[in-house]
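Readers of this paper often ask what the protein records in our data store actually look like. Nothing more is needed to write down the fold, since each code stands for a local backbone conformation. Below, we set out a record of this kind in full and without editing:
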Amino acid sequence: MKVLIVGGTGLISTGIVEHLLARGSDVTLFNRGKRTPRKASGFRSIVGDRDVATDFEERFANQRYDVVIDMICFSPSQADASVRAFGGRTEQLIFCSTVCTYGVELPPQVLVNEAFPACPISEYAKNKLSCEQILRRAAAEHRFKLTIIRPSNTYGPGSPLIDQMEFDSVVWDRVSHGLPVLCAGDGLGLWQATHRSDVGRLFAYAALNPKTYGEDFNATRDHVFTWRDYYREAALALDRRAELVLVPAGWVVAQNPKRFAFLNEISRYHGAYDSAKAKAAVPEFRCAIGLPEGARETFADIRRRGAWRRHQDDAEYSALVLRAIELGFERLSA
């Protein structure tokens, strides 16, 4: 199976490459060559920029791949370029979208499945939905078979482990020192976190699987956390307990709207998704890595890369915690 990954060195891509190579696939990566994949053997690399026509569309004018996996398509113009580059030159295009396209409403059964109507609220999610629509039109014109995969929060080596407030914070250093951290609301909001290897398995085994043609799939681990659970299980990887200060999400956002945009647009809402459809179509997709195990691996990688953030270097966050305690917000040990 001849596979091209547009991107290929990011978090999820690393898991995809791992599983494609295990399948014996012929893998080529197309990216700017700024990062080296953790598994740096067994594939080819093409260095170029997808936003420059001569480096993208013309580069593939005489190439054919069984599968193209587009991991770095974030705008309608990029989706249009993918149609021009790969239409008629690949059997299947797999597009990495996001569960954020569903928006923030909850269905009666709580878990959001693929039938839930799209109603995104962030610019990122609105652009991803536009990309989906462009690629669907191309598939309807028989340019390629389309598969859409929507990951939620994905983590693993090579990336920070998020907390509820932001993507890369000093929270885990505070937890390791027994210091309190902020948790929005009552800590009972729903969330999912899936290891990059498990998500990558779905992409890799959806490739050339006719059951995935014309379909869209959520890509999440079945386990649904509350945020209290999330902090508790991540803290286990540090051999500590998480000391939480429960604060209103709106209060946190008001302190610094730009810094806490992730909380404001995404994590203050429930994020719980049903991936039964993906498991039915792709039997190989089974999520085996739990958060304590995956977080321990991720934390070790962060330290190894010298990217561990010290709590002493974030006076703003420390001041927020002290202010929340002074205001008498509830505290608990997760």
